[in-house]
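Protocol step 4 of 5: obtain the predicted structure for the target chain.
Materials: sequence only (see below). No template structures provided, no constraints applied. The aim of this step is simply to have a reference model before the mutagenesis design in step 5. Sequence pasted as it appears in the construct record:
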Amino acid sequence: MRHTLPMSSRPFPISQPITIRRAVARDAKRLTRLVRGSGAYEGKYAAAVAGYRVGPDYIEEHRAFVAVGADEHGGRVLGFYSLVLAPPELDLLFVADEVQGRGIGRLLVAHMQSEARAAGLDRLKVVSHLPAEDFYHRVGAVRTGTAFANPPAVPWDRPEFEFRIPSE
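Step 4 output (structure tokens):
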């Protein structure tokens, strides 16, 4: 399933069409760079992603999708997400820093909800990074609790959300 972001839903124009496609093994290094280079994980949050790796095995095991922009190099990865079916969870969702605020995260969430619906899910959880809490509220997730700190990897509490997936 491919989704394309319509021009009217972008608050800031992007000069190229955006397509969501299934991630493949050769995307692994680009996805890892996107996670490790995220501005949301600077300073005190840097340790959480310092050694993080999105490997080809992870991509094969989970439903990972990338948002790509068309360009002369075959498509630049603008963001991605990973949907875990059992237990149902949005495991990863990242948008490149330089294109945040342009509707790509919202497009990824809509795609994820469509994939979850197709897989027969009616809800799924998200453990949010603190700086992403407002984003999840804006895209319709409901706060359900707190995931408590798990030092040394994650030494802070994180908000836990749920997406309810309505049937069509």
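Step 4 remarks: The domain at 18-122 is CATH 3.40.630.30 (Aminopeptidase). DSSP finds four helices and seven strands in the chain.
Proceed to step 5.
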